[in-house]
Design brief:
globular; seven-stranded antiparallel sheet; Jelly Rolls; mainly beta; 26 strands; binds manganese (II) ion; single chain
């Protein structure tokens, strides 16, 4: 059915790349994670029209899932290289074990930042006391000079910072006068925002940063552009402030991401980030045969085998600054 007009046919063509006032809406696609407990996530990064926001290169949003029907999360030991993982929960609890020897519980409002660097492996299992699983899994690409960094695991619990009509939990970088002490390899912003019904606020932002606002709940508008739940609104560099409004009757919960444009091309495949197809081939081989990624102790089960590589060479994502 057609109403006889093309979408946007009469409106001026806008481009978030060049117009700092425009918000690009990145909608989520549903991705089944596979395995015995088949969780489905809503993925907003990477996608065709955008690979990175700062060094943020992967954003999965999931839940709220009733674990009595979904079975919860049970991800067997698997490797990572060239990236950091950020686990941030809204609800539930995940037991984390890694080849550094870390054994930690990921809980709502608590940052767990794992540095894969040259190579790490880890398992993630929701705990028996978890009834609802709800949160985000984010990846940060490491810049070339640090992508072989030693494996690391950092835990941090940000205090809520009051905003005009809500509060923020700043887990990475600086926002609303609060700064996370957690080390990163490129400038980054990561924060959970909570906005009261009807709240509208203006947050000062670094104009060198590009930003992404991921909506968990609420009737949210970023610089006037409406964002559906699970969508990611993108604002290009050049903003000294962002205006965020919650026009709905429920509290809005959001994740704000930011950083200067990454400026390096990356090759992403499975759980690896590299700079070339050949490096990915090597990482896969090292996982299947070598000891590069170390061993996870205490997980009940076998490590995940790597999938087969595609026949075609993997293509780099991202773009020059
Ligand atoms: Mn992982």
């Amino acid at each position: 059915m057609s109403n006889g007009s093309f979408p946007g046919g009469d409106a001026p063509v806008s481009n978030a790349e060049t117009d700092p006032t425009t918000v690009q809406v990145l909608t989520a696609r549903k991705v089944p994670l596979g395995g015995p407990r088949a969780m489905t996530v809503r993925r907003t990064l990477p996608q065709r029209s955008r690979s990175l926001i700062g060094a943020w290169c992967f954003a999965d949003h999931y839940g709220p899932d009733d674990v009595t029907s979904s079975g919860g999360m049970d991800v067997a030991p698997h490797p990572h290289t060239g990236l950091q993982t950020v686990s941030w929960l809204f609800g539930g609890e995940i037991e984390h074990r890694d080849s550094l020897g870390s054994h930690a519980y990921v809980r709502p409002g608590e940052l767990n930042l794992m540095t894969g660097g040259h190579g790490i492996s880890h398992s993630e299992v929701s705990t028996p006391r978890t009834t609802t699983l709800h949160g985000v899994q984010l990846w940060v690409a490491l810049p070339d000079e640090h992508r072989d960094a030693p494996r690391d695991f950092q835990h941090y619990v940000p205090r809520p910072v009051p905003l005009n009509g809500g509060h923020a939990r700043v887990f990475l970088g600086t926002l609303a006068g609060d700064t996370s002490p957690v080390r990163t390899f490129t400038p980054l912003l990561g924060a959970e925002l909570s906005l009261d019904p009807g709240a509208a606020l203006t947050l000062d932002t670094d104009p060198d940063f590009e930003h992404g606002l991921l909506v968990d709940t609420g009737d949210v508008h970023l610089n006037g552009t409406p964002l559906e739940p699970a969508a990611l609104g993108y604002a290009a560099p050049g903003h000294r402030a962002l205006t965020i409004a919650n026009e709905g009757p429920e509290t809005a919960r959001l994740i704000l991401l930011g950083g200067p444009p990454f400026g390096e091309e990356i090759v992403m495949w499975w759980n690896f980030i590299a700079r070339s197809h050949d490096e990915i081939v090597q990482a896969r081989e090292d996982w299947m045969k070598g000891d590069r990624f170390g061993e996870v102790h205490g997980y009940d089960g076998a490590p995940l085998p790597a999938p087969e590589l595609p026949n075609a060479p993997l293509k780099p994502r991202g773009r020059a600054r």
